[in-house]
Amino acid sequence: xxxxxxxxxxxxxxxxxxxxxxxxxxxxxxxxxxxxxxxxxxxxxxxxxxxxxxxxxxxxxxxxxxxxxxxxxxxxxxxxxxxxxxxxxxxxxxxxxxxxxxxxxxxxxxxxxxxxxxxxxxxxxxxxx
Length: 129
Known about the structure:
This protein is mainly alpha-helical. The protein contains three helices and no strands. The longest helix has 48 residues, at 81-128.
């Protein structure tokens, strides 16, 4: 069973513009600018790469240079056992710190960009007056 929809005569429908002159929205100029500027996309891609590659790179760099261990070796019964077992833990902690630093840097860049957009909007408003 279907129900009938009651439509009042004073409502405006988007199809009415097309009926008047044959083109939909002819009186409205369309905005073809992208919703997000390209610089914002490039910054996001850069921080995404840094968030992925930074901690992994720092993990293996510190594991092999600073902590002198390997991620899959275990020397049992040796004096170096504690150092080798702990080296991957310390390298992981360094990688976690790196991830946090990338995140903090992203937040700072985003806040500065937001402030610059606000300042630009205020200057544009001053020029109009």
